[in-house]
Amino acid sequence: MRVLFNEEMKQIADDLDTMAAAVKAAIDGAGKALLDNDIDAAQSVIDGDLKIDGLEASIIDQCVQMLAKQSPVATDLRIVVSTLRIASTFERMGDLARHIAETARRAYPDSAVNPAIRDLFEKMQDFDSHTAGEIISILQNRDEDRAEKLIVNDNKLDELHTQTFSIINGEDWKGTQQQTIDAVLIARFYERIGDHAVGVARRIVYMVSGFDPSKDPTPLLAGGLDE
Amino acid sequence: MRVLFNEEMKQIADDLDTMAAAVKAAIDGAGKALLDNDIDAAQSVIDGDLKIDGLEASIIDQCVQMLAKQSPVATDLRIVVSTLRIASTFERMGDLARHIAETARRAYPDSAVNPAIRDLFEKMQDFDSHTAGEIISILQNRDEDRAEKLIVNDNKLDELHTQTFSIINGEDWKGTQQQTIDAVLIARFYERIGDHAVGVARRIVYMVSGFDPSKDPTPLLAGGLDE
Questions:
Q1: Which of A96, A174, A206, B213 has the most CB atoms lying inside 10 A of its own CB?
Q2: In this protein, which residues make up the domain named PhoU (chains A, B) (predicted)?
Q3: pLDDT digits 0-9 by tens, B169-196
Q4: Does B227 contact A85 at a Cβ distance shorter than 8 Å?
């Protein structure tokens, strides 16, 4: 029984790693679609989202089976419950990357990105791509310290998000109304991807240590998941 | 043991009902804040969001304790896992209502709502408020048929969301740049609240029947949870 249990746990962990890699690929593809106006990249992210949805469904099924048949306790139970929740968060990150790709596709052959906001979106893209890469590594290595660093860095993305509105509200903004709409939404999608990544980092800390950093009363770590 | 189990299940179900009612109150308060420019209502939604976050944390704790100590199977397990996921969705719905309230507060004493889009936002508000009310009732009565009706009706909200962009992009739109930004975000928040409510309805169907309608291949029900 125990051998089987460990094999099944390993399978679930592998699938979660696969899902993390698929989410990172979707975020990178969304960036290519948006910033390089790459319609093939856009289509590939949109099509690939079904795979991410399928991975979520499969991981949740496996977790529920595991709970039903093995009745894990203590650390094992924490891992299964965290995995359930992380899989759902990954699924949403994939949706958000798809939204960015869809925005690029709708604007094509024009660009959804007005030049005045391009630099900011490149920064947000880099932030989310880097964060998704960190999540892959943290998940594989159960690296609590790096997870905590990610949680603390979240306010950088919030600052970038706030800058969006200064740019759009500024006198130099010459974007079309559609570019204004797209910029507001894209900034929101980028910010949500980053927030969800932080949520995953929190859950990895909980998974590894049993301590939930979203309940930490210090201001640095306060503020739970959003939307 | 069984008596204790049922008592604990009842407590979790009661807390989830309390959370559903708090989410409905937050949505209604956000509507008052936004559409009646009611700053007290806005503040009350913003302050009240902490209570919703606390309920989520408590419900998740109870579910994990339940899994650890009682090892539920079959229907009971399905209820516990669904409850975990529904509590997280309610938490996000509360965040979104808070975002609407925050938008109203930021604009105050001006209104965040340009008159040209007021009618549309009233409809979206009514939709979300009605849906949240249905969720309370469906949850209490485990009413699968009404849950399925809610799932099918979701496209009405999508239509309202799409209309937002027609209005903002239209020639008659005279909103300030800030009102444009606010309108794009508010419409998005309303649409997300409705999507999450549909996600809850799907999970209630799964909880009651063991059938997951998000896996139904018919176009009417296809398309999973978003963001």
A1: A96
A2: 17-103, 122-204
A3: 999 999 999 999 999 999 999 999 999 9
A4: no
pLDDT < 70 positions in chain A: 1-2, 212-227
Only one residue has tokens 């007005």, namely A114
Contact A181 B188 (CB under 8 A): no
pLDDT band per the 50, 70, 90 thresholds, residue B154: confident
Q: What number is the ipTM of this complex? A: 0.90
What distance in Å separates the CA atoms of residue B123 and residue B167, rounded to the nearest whole number?
14
Considering only the beta carbons, identify the residue of A99, A188, A224 that sits closest to B185.
A188
Sequence letter at residue B225: L
Would you list the DSSP string of B33-101? Answer: HHHS--HHHHHHHHHHHHHHHHHHHHHHHHHHHHHHHH---HHHHHHHHHHHHHHHHHHHHHHHHHHHH
Q: Are A180 and B177 a contacting pair at CB < 8 A? A: yes
List the 20-79 stretch of A: residues with Cβ below 8 A of B. 53, 57, 63-64, 67-68, 71, 73-74, 77-78
Nearest to B192 among A71, A84, A227 (CB): A227
- Is the bond preceding B115 in cis, omega lying within 30 degrees of 0? no
Chain A hits for B215, Cβ within 8 Å: 57
